[in-house]
Design a protein that fits this description.
228 residues, Gyrase A, domain 2, binds flavin-adenine dinucleotide
Length: 228
């Protein structure tokens, strides 16, 4: 999996803070933009903790994602508050590239069978391509097939995405992607994403009440003597 943050709103924390300050200020916007940055960041922290997260919608982030499965992107595009451009299987002929889940990787015999099956699928895909349009040949390709996608999301949508997909209950591949994206945006917008992540870690409770989860706050408390 390759995940890169290829573009983002300059100074995302400051833009969001200025937007927040503007709502309660008589000052000109230029003055607000030149306000003390540390004060602006403090204000933003307060506003976010109050739940007034519409101000972080002004901050946009664009990711280039490749080496992930179609299975992952099928879940990813369910997040509607975002923009997507994905490599087309209609127009682009697909090489034999696919994701192998860790559960298969650790079972040597199963991995061999899995690889054999993938080879067979791609051989049939090649056979089909000579007989029908590529857009029809692709019907035989597996969920595991590699894909590339560019995704843009504003920070508010990302906070929702991280809450849902950084959770241990989320599927492993999209969870891996979500954590990689979170690490990238935290570097450029540390205030906005300071408290981002699954609710067990950021809010100290599990909305799904999954008591058997190893990250369940009560279990964590027992293990570490403190909440996360
Ligand atoms: C662990 C897990 C398991 C899942 N399992 C399934 C499954 O089995 N089957 C399945 O179909 N999906 C499943 N999903 C997908 C899930 O139902 C959501 O479609 C997906 O997570 C996108 O979330 P979202 O709607 O909050 O995001 P977005 O689409 O980005 O929306 C963000 C927010 O905007 C608001 N919003 C967006 N559109 C509307 C609208 N039309 N009306 C009102 N408010 C809106 C909502 O507040 C929403 O939370 C699963 C998700 C997770 C995390």
């Amino acid at each position: 999996m390759k995940v890169e943050l290829i573009a983002y709103t300059p100074e995302p924390d400051i833009i969001a803070a200025v937007a927040a300050k503007l709502t309660h200020s008589k000052s000109e916007i230029d003055e607000l933009l030149n306000d003390d940055k540390e004060k602006l960041k403090k204000l933003l922290k307060i506003v976010i903790r109050m739940g007034h997260t519409s101000v972080v919608e002004h901050a946009y982030f664009t990711f280039a994602i490749s080496g992930v499965s179609r299975s992952l992107t099928h879940q990813l595009v369910r997040h509607r508050i975002a923009s997507y451009s994905q490599q087309s299987q209609r127009y682009v002929e697909q090489n034999m590239e696919y994701v192998t889940p860790p559960s298969i990787l650790k079972d040597e015999e199963l991995k061999k069978k899995y690889d054999r099956m993938m080879k067979e699928i791609w051989e049939f895909y090649e056979y089909m391509k000579d007989r029908v349009p590529v857009e029809d040949a692709r019907y035989v390709l597996p969920n595991a097939a590699h894909t590339k996608i560019i995704v843009s999301m504003n920070a508010r949508s990302l906070l929702n995405f991280f809450e849902l997909r950084c959770c241990l209950h989320a599927q492993w591949e999209i969870r891996k992607l979500a954590w990689r994206m979170l690490h990238l945006v935290r570097k450029v917008a540390p205030i906005i994403f300071e408290d981002a992540g699954p609710p067990c870690m950021t809010k100290g409770y599990c909305p799904m009440n999954k008591k058997d989860c190893v990250w369940y706050p009560e279990r964590m408390k027992k293990r570490n003597g403190k909440n996360l």
